[in-house]
Every structure is written in C-alpha cells, then in structure tokens.
Amino acid sequence: MERSDWWKTSISDISPGVIRYHGYPVEQLIAAPEVGMATMAWLLTRGELPSVPQARLLERALVAGVDHGPQAPSIAIARMAMTCGVGINNAMASATNVLGDVHGGAGQELMEIFATILQDPRPLPETVAAEIARLRAENKYVPGFGHRFHPVDPRREPLVAAVTQAREDGVVEGRVLEAALEIERQINEGRQRPIPMNIDGATAIIYAELGFAPVLGRGLFILSRSIGALAHAWEESNSGARNKGPEHRTILPDYVGPAPRDVP
Questions:
Q1: Which of 116, 172, 181, 183 has the fewest Cβ atoms nearer than 10 Å?
Q2: What is the rounded CA–CA span in Å between residue 163 and residue 209?
C-alpha cells in the first residue's frame, strides 16, 4: 500500500496552492453569490452542488434549529462548561456530545420511519396506522411530535409551508410531507389537546424530502444547534461567573438517602 492511500477521500483535494471540494475550486465557491453554508454542507456530504431552491430549503431547516435557550440541556451544558475555565471549543463539544437519541435524535428516528412508510405498498393511511400501532405496542412515542414547552411549536408552520411551496414548485416530491401530515392527523384523532409537530418533525420532513440519509439528518441538526452553543458559551464567558451548576447555589438537591448514622 502506498503511503498516500492511508487516507483516501473523494471530498477534498488538497495540495500546495490548491483546495478543491468534490472538484470545485474553493476560490470559485467563495466568489459564487449563491453559495453559503447550506450549499457547502450539501456539497461535502452529497458530492454535488444543490440547486438554489434546494439550498434555500435546507437553509430554512438549519436556521430553525440553531437554539432553544438555556432550558435545552445541550445549551445549559455549554454555558456550565464555559464557567469551568475551558475553551469555547470544549463548551461547544460538551453541548453537541449530549445530542443523542433523547435530546436531538428524534429527527433521525422520524426519517427512518418515513423510509419505512414510503417503502410500503399499502395505501398511506393504512401504512401510517400500522406504524403508529407498532410504536405504541413497543411502548414508544412517535418521534417528532409533541413538545414539553410549546403548546404549538412556532417553527412548525413556516417549515411545513416552505416544504409545501417547494412541492408546488417541483423542488421536492412531497411524499414525505404527505406521510408526516398523515401521522399528525392520525395521532390527533379524538384528542381534546393536540400533539403538535415539533422542530424535529418539521426539519425531518425537509431533510428527508431533500434526500439526506437519516443519520445525516441528525448531523445537520447538530451542525445547526452548534451555532446556539457557540453563542451561549460566548455570552456566558462574559458573565464573570465561575463553576455554575444546573441550579443556583442557594438551591440544594433533595437528599433521599439514609438518615445520619455513625460509622460502626
């Protein structure tokens, strides 16, 4: 094996004086007026440049997920880490490291469900009903729906509207959108208090409609949320606080262990 074969990549072509991404010279990408971060995320993960409407739709999803305040565990962790004297990169990494199946992974899970539904030859309502029944039988919730904080997630409507418009413009097929809306309809049948689609559900529609693999859906959300982690870490670094925990120092956790006792 030649030493140059140790790391092989189709993504970046780097040599003295040359930087190309999937063959495109970086100087041309920098100068192109329609190339932004969403375009670059698409290019590096997919190998080709998106169309302008595709990039704009992706951009909407990335914008929507950047932050949800210190009540989001990942953002709170970024702020706490910053008061421990670490670098801003450590605080950002601490935040993204907790974006797992429970906090930040629902979009990927829903994209996997979309893939299952769209491969099923049965009529859409029947397929969706079967998938919801399976999740309930396994004592699982339907990912991408419901929010512990918002009665109606304010990000749902503009994102769904953007996908709807993209379907009308021929940018996306709209099959994932139809599946998502059918899931939303069925899980809310007969309910006095609706279970709204949340940010994970709305962005999962966009990522899936644009053809991203489910695992990339999670990666794109993490990419988006890292901007919020950066902003909050920076803000907290200017507070002068040190060693901040999850609660104010005047609030102590409830102790539920044994009563005071002597060592025998």
A1: 116
A2: 8
- 41 exposure class (CB count in 10 Å sphere: 0-12, 13-18, 19+): buried
pLDDT in tens, 170-217: 999 999 999 999 999 999 998 888 888 999 999 999 999 999 999 999
Domains: count for the chain: 2
Domain membership flag for residue 174: yes
Beta-bridged to residue 13, according to DSSP, are 20
Domain that holds residue 25: 11-50
If pLDDT is split at 50, 70 and 90, which confidence band does 50 have? very high
